[in-house]
Amino acid sequence: MGDKIPAPAQDTSKSDDEQFEDAQCKEEFNERAVDEVIEKVTGLSTRKPPDTETDVFVDCVTHTGVDPGTNKAADDGGESAQQNSGSDDAVEPAFEDDLVDEDSQRDYECGLSEEEKEANKTKADELKQQGNELFKQGEHLKSLDLYTQALRLCPLDRVEPRAILYANRAAAKTKLDRKRSALDDCTKALEYNPNYVKALLRRANLYEETDKLDESLEDYRKVLELEPANSEARSATVRLPPKIAERNERLKEEMMDKLKDLGNMILRPFGLSTQNFEMKQDPQTGSYSINFNQGAKQ
């Protein structure tokens, strides 16, 4: 049996996002189609008990690590995740699936009433709280799984909660060294809330860590537009331009070396080399002129 996940204590003095940061359409669908969409999006299937017309949701997925109905780690998912992950640096377990299919989710939500959507939102909030607690305890793989479950439940029109869920999941992925996927989650968070400073900062850091310096600087500058006093962004806008200039100069030199090699290969049959050609830059215009020097050594 998997371990039980303790229910998180409620801290009403802070928002959900603040607690996390402290620790780092109405078309008719036939019944069968609706069941398939629900099962695909939420991991839940519907069944009608004998002599009743009421739908009852039952868990039909055990690979995600946590049973959202009982808050217990699934026998396969939870224990396998613990055994396979070993540490935060471990390779992502093969069974893990963090796909959030928003197209299917949109179709599924077309068949829901506002009351049902709000109930899903409430359940997503509970999963997020549990994920936040696990994140603070260093259980980053399990917290990632809970954020994914919450995203599959949280209605698409609840933009702020979804932005926070994507940003939180990005933080968990960063701890697991899944930087490319974390970048994707930051971008999704910013699609829901373009002015989400914490998501911008997180993406800027990830861009810098993956040598995407221009993109990183752009995000930091956006942060300063929103929060002119942000010290992290201010420091980065001073630190990054010299690094970008140095990188560009290095790339230019590498390109020139490759061009010289190509030129020498073309000129060699004629007894010439690139040393026979001298490039001079006009300081007034910045343009280059090429002079032929027949006596240059080859």
User: By helix and strand content, what is the structural category?
Assistant: mainly alpha
Per CATH, the class of the domain at 97-182 reads Mainly Alpha
> What is the H/E order?
HHEEHHHHHHHHHEE
CATH topology of the domain at 97-182: Serine Threonine Protein Phosphatase 5, Tetratricopeptide repeat
Distance between the termini: 76 Å
In CATH terms, what is the architecture of the domain at 97-182?
Alpha Horseshoe
Uncertain segments are 25-30, 45-95
**Percentage of residues in helical conformation:** 55-70%
Mean pLDDT over the full residue set = 75
- The CATH homology group name of the domain at 97-182: Tetratricopeptide repeat domain
Q: What would you report as the Rg, rounded to the nearest angstrom?
A: 27 Å
Question: Total number of β-strand segments?
Answer: 4
Count of helical regions: 11
Percent strand equals 5-15%
Main pleated sheet: 2 strands, antiparallel
Shape: elongated
Biased composition (Basic and acidic residues): 13-39
Biased composition (Acidic residues): 89-102
Region (Disordered): 1-125
Organism: Anopheles stephensi (Indo-Pakistan malaria mosquito)
